[in-house]
TrEMBL record, chain A:
Belongs to the FAD-binding oxidoreductase/transferase type 4 family. Keywords: FAD, Flavoprotein, Oxidoreductase. InterPro entries: FAD-bd_oxidored_4_C, FAD-bd_PCMH, FAD-bd_PCMH-like_sf, FAD-bd_PCMH_sub2, FAD-linked_Oxase-like_C, FAD-linked_OxidoTrans_Type4, Oxid_FAD_bind_N, Vanillyl_alc_oxidase_C-sub2. Signal peptide: none annotated. It holds the Pfam family FAD-oxidase_C. Its cofactor is FAD. The lineage of its organism: Bacteria, Bacillati, Bacillota, Bacilli, Bacillales. This is Glycolate oxidase subunit GlcD. Gene3D superfamilies: 3.30.465.10, 3.30.70.2740, Vanillyl-alcohol Oxidase, Chain A, domain 4 (1.10.45.10). Residues 36-216 form the FAD-binding PCMH-type domain.
UniProtKB/TrEMBL annotation, chain B:
This is Glycolate oxidase iron-sulfur subunit. The keyword Repeat applies. Its cofactor is [4Fe-4S] cluster. Its EC number is 1.1.99.14. It catalyses: (R)-lactate + A = pyruvate + AH2; glycolate + A = glyoxylate + AH2.
Amino acid sequence: MVTEEMLNQIKSMIKSEKRILTEKADLVSYAYDGSFGSYLPDLVLQPLSTEEVSGIVKTANRWKVPIYPRGRGTSLSGGPLPVYGGIVLDFSLWNQKLTIDRDDTVAIVSPGVITAEIDRAAREFGLMYPPDPSSAHVSTIGGNLAENAGGPRGLKYGVTKDYVLGLEIVTPQGDIIRTGGRTIKNVTGYDLTKLIVGSEGTLGIITEAILQLIPRPQATQTMMVIFDDIVDAGRAISSVLTSGILPSKMEIMDQFSIEAVEDYEPIGLPTDVDAIILIELDGHPLAIQDECHQVEKVCLDVGAREVKIATDSESAAKLWKARKLVSPAIVRKKPTKISEDATIPRSKIPEMFKRLKEIKTKYDIDLVVFGHAGDGNLHPNIIADKRDKAEMKRVEQAVTEIFSTAIELGGTLSGEHGIGTMKTPFMEMELGGAGLEMMKRMKTAWDPLNIMNPGKIFPDSKDQRLVLVDD
Amino acid sequence: MTSKLAYKETFDCVQCGYCLPACPTYSTMGKESHSPRGRINLVQMASEGKISINEIEESMDLCLGCRACETACPTNVQYGKILESFKEVKAEQETSPLASRLAMQKGLPNKTILGAMTASLRIYQSMGVDKLARKMKLLKVLPEQLQAFEEITPKIEKPDKKLRASVLSPNGEKKASIAFFTGCIMDVFFAKINDLSIKLLQYAGCEVTVIKEQTCCGALQNHDGDTETTRKLAKKNIAAFEKGNFDYIVNSIGGCGAMLVEYDVLLKNDSEWSERAKRFTDKNKDVSVILSKLNLQFKKELNRRVTYQPSCHLTNVQKVTTDPIHLLQSIPKINYVPLPAGDMCCGSAGTYNIFHYDESMEILDEKMENVKKVVPEMIVTSNPGCHLQMCLGVKREGLASKVRVAHIIEVLAEACGIE
């Protein structure tokens, strides 16, 4: 697919041959991401400037070769997978630009900057970049922007798109455009910035972003609330949020994840309970001290068994450890982890938990649920062994049912991971035929040749289904 | 052939990528194929016959084996096992020795530096690592940069014979009975540090025994895929240390200690030895772990700005992280400053800095950038390999007159008034 002539043209515009990867060991190393499936690219390029990206895209247009932008490949939905072969654009080396403008409270970044580095740089000026996906110390901002990543702090602070003021984009034709700017208010024309964020690299390639920063809260306070009944946990979440307090994080763990953690590394969690909610408050130290006691009262009033309040940063870290241990604890049983992020309205959390329990029994699968309870962004995780085909078939069916349940309860397929390759079969179920068609029209208008990250978001055919294992 | 690869273990990787920021070669080489996740995938693909051993060799060879990825991994992938399985398969497959192939592949440098070769050879011959020594000879011509090693290679110091007498009594009341593991390179080039370790242990109340029959730990042979020799050495050591009833077996070499605590894994399938190996590994402790339990009485102040470069194998395999730092911080008047990205390997990694000089120096340069941020007067180490590499780093930066590199034992001994 990538001809010698094309390769020569690319060599003439990329300054160092070291950033043109053609060896087999390299190609197979860009065939995967954090999700499922493996697709071999024909070529991997590591651009370091907008001009290089523009040149590569123009070349790809001439030869009609697909392009797949990629950060550090932490995607849980297949965002950067080169489904139809072609060129993977690896942006991980392009991390040179990270400028904080203190007066405008913005950060200007190149696409390969690590997300957590932005917040770290902002901290030096008393500022904060709130989006905090759990992979923030690995993932690039380019990938976060393309997928509109979320994170625990989404409850109070929103997600990636809420902090993007302006972008520089290379269009599918190879033109360089700028959207938005560096002001909070900007109503000039269509909001292309918000369109591009979360478009999963299907409408263009982000080469620079201007991100809004906010004043950093002075302090945080962590607490753990233990519930005998998950329904009470659901009520507690709503009660806290209507008591005049907006925690920065509210994370839930179900009984199975608590048991798994205690089995793996006993840290003193009660295993005879239905759910645990971890809450973090942030703000002025005196204010959060007061809020902390209010939250405690509200939770106890709706039937919480116990509230543990961290007394210092060490005991806070200890409480959060429970949540951190979930992943290593659950994969001890079986190696394959299917991490979903179907999201439902907050009020439906208890119902969703009930339905997930039924799905677990019905398909005889190992399923644990944890996630961002405050915003209904649950993470049902299925643990399986991808070498066990019969089990994987059951997992496919279970995942399908999780999606339809989320939609039935008024929720969505994906809260923060993106559609990628995995959820394309369910798009019409959520959007309806006409809704999906309008999205397709936008894609076609922007990228008529369909060379920009093809195979993502839109199903190939009407009867496409979820496939986690080869037949 | 490929069936020996740790195929099953590769499935524990969920490809989340959390290992990427921990990997020194991913950082310096900037390619997924030089990341832990990439290497695990390559081994899996090679096991499935989808790619050849030759095609994945460069990526695997350039792994430092620092195992920082294991510490970062949220799903407990046994990367060390996967890497070693590759080394073993490669060692079996090898038709021409690695070194001569390397010399051919990398192009021959134009200058022969016998001195450097001799220096490096001296180190490895002294360890009884004959195979490695042969490889070095086969290199015939070494990169001129190896002169660097000649300059930092320490002079051979003779160990204090009195301290190698079999049982040394504690100062004061006996708090523990300890068998001391000397290591081979350590007891030739850093005999002084072993001497001081023994004296410190005595000072802290330990009865110390140095068993004559002990031998090389086998770490370098193991990293080179020579599992057979490693097992032989392990058995010899286990048998040697069964001679007495000790509370602990103690060493002051991060790298050797990591090998010693994995003897149980090494001999897991050997019914005669597995239990004996387990008993042996359970007793093995780094000297810092023991000393931090014993409440050292300091006699001198150390009015210096000090940073600490941990040994990767002490951190990632032995999981000893806080003891050395607590010990340092307990020295009166010390100004301890943490080294940014201290957990990153310094690029020494056994023989890595000799066989992969350029790659090693790139890693060292990143390390030194962080050292310069701290502006220390002293860099403290816990393993001879790291020690030499830090000496080299300090020298390359022109800081040799300003920054002293010292083993943690030297620093503690000084503060305790032990010479």
